[in-house]
Amino acid sequence: MARSLERQQWTPVRVPRWSSERWTRVSSRLRTWLLVTSLLVLALGGLHLYRITSVPVTLVVDGQRLVLRTHRTTVAGVLEDAGLRLDPADIVQPTLSATVTPGMEVRVRRARPVQIYADGRTLNVRTQARTVRELLHDAGIYVTPYDEVVVEGQVTPDLDAPLPERDLPSSPLQVAIRRAVPIRVHDNGATYVIHTTASTVGEALQREKVTLYLGDLVRPGLGTPVTAGLRIHIERSVPFSVRVDGREIHTRTRQWTVADALADLGIVVTGADIVTPSLSTEIKPHLSVAITRVREAIEIEQDAIPYRTIWVPDDDLEIDHRRVDQPGQEGLIKRRFRVVYHDGEPVSRVLEDEWIAQEPITRVIAYGRKIVLRTLETPYGPITYWRKIRMLATSYSPSTAGVEPDDPYFGRTRLGWRMRKGIVAVDPTVIKLGSRVYVPGYGIGDAADTGGLIRGRRIDLGFDDHNLELWYRWVDVYLLAPPPPRYQIRWILPDWPRERHR
């Protein structure tokens, strides 16, 4: 270890040798660096000296503030350093010759450019005016109360209104003057003069709030261009109304008579129509005209003529049988009417003719009068009957017959018999009193009684009070032989009550 240290301690160091050329290059670079450094130090020092010797000034241009430092002694110099080129119409406060003092505030209000179109020429001006009136005064332009001033495409009725601010103050504000021209209006006998800046007759009348109706006539037309000294003639229409064909028309017209007014509306009146007031009536304001449409028509009506029915006896046809020998047919009667209609409603109806177009045909029915005796087996033994009738059967007893117990006729029948089971009440025109009948489920009975409700095909079955059975149903009733004399037989039975649930 000692030996190593010793060897290291005495080892010689080799130093490189520079040539003279290399030393020259290093010396040149050093001199350049020293020169740049010196100049930089001098510049920074000078700048610092310049800064500490300048004064601060606040510059306000059209409301925008800028703080700067200057060595200038006058306001004009400060504005020149700021690069502001002034127009003669610009306003500077304080004046350009004022001496600059530390902390001074210099205000500059630049004039705004305006381009004015008036009386066929274009004026380019710069102005400090804040209202339209001030602008026109500065430009030496006179306007009448009828002229229009258009600022940026918008009509400005108030000359004291402020001029609009522009996003680009350097671009000129556009202002145009529209000169009003006089025109004379002859309005239905009245004459007046209006001054207008409108381009057409219609626009001029509209601006003057001249009310025009659909029927009014304006000469020259509403689309005619307006020129100085133009004369306008207005022929007024009058209001009137027409009630026709279910509607009411409110309109206006310049015609003199009702006929001309209706023709003007295209309403056709025929010779039969009724016009109130008449067609020759002079049209006056709010006249009401009513037209009643009159129409005549021939109408044919037809009605059916019912046919008759006749019954013809046939001794070869069994009783209660029928045969249609000739079917009936209705006839036809026609009538011709002349009908007058007012607005579609009939007001008169006159019969002009009536005739039978088709005669009715009588219906012929043959009814049987041949009696055939037949035998029927019953629980009571065989019976012989000559007629079978479908009838509505009900039942009654002495107490239910509607006769008070103290009445002499209580419990007595129409023939004076004592009321009991086996007595039946019938319509004598259908079943002869005294006849004998057989009713299935009831037995054989004697037709010995009648009743107020027993009519036609109705039979009331009698009972004693103690064995009363309630009946109400349709049954076949057999009329037992022998038959009565032919003149006592009702060959055609009534159809009442009508059979139901048979």
Strand content: 35-45%
Give Rg in angstroms.
67 Å
Mean pLDDT: 87
**What distance separates the N and C termini?**
157 Å
CATH homologous superfamily heading of the largest domain: RlpA-like domain
| Biggest pleated-sheet summary | 6 strands, mixed, barrel
Based on helices, strands and strand pairing, what is the structural class?
Answer: mainly beta
The level-1 CATH class of the largest domain: Mainly Beta
| Helix count from the secondary structure assignment | 6
The order of strands across the largest sheet is 25-29-26-28-27-30
- Low-confidence segments, given as residue ranges, are 1-11
Helix content: 10-25%
Tally the structural domains.
6
Shape-level CATH architecture of the largest domain: Beta Barrel
What name does CATH use for the topology of the largest domain? Barwin-like endoglucanases
- How many strands appear in the DSSP assignment? 30
Shape: elongated
Protein model, in words:
The protein is mainly β and 502 residues long. It contains six helices and 30 strands. The strands form seven sheets. The chain has a six-stranded mixed beta barrel with strand order 25-29-26-28-27-30. The longest helix is centred in the N-terminal third of the chain and has 34 residues. It is elongated and about 180 Å long. The termini are far apart.
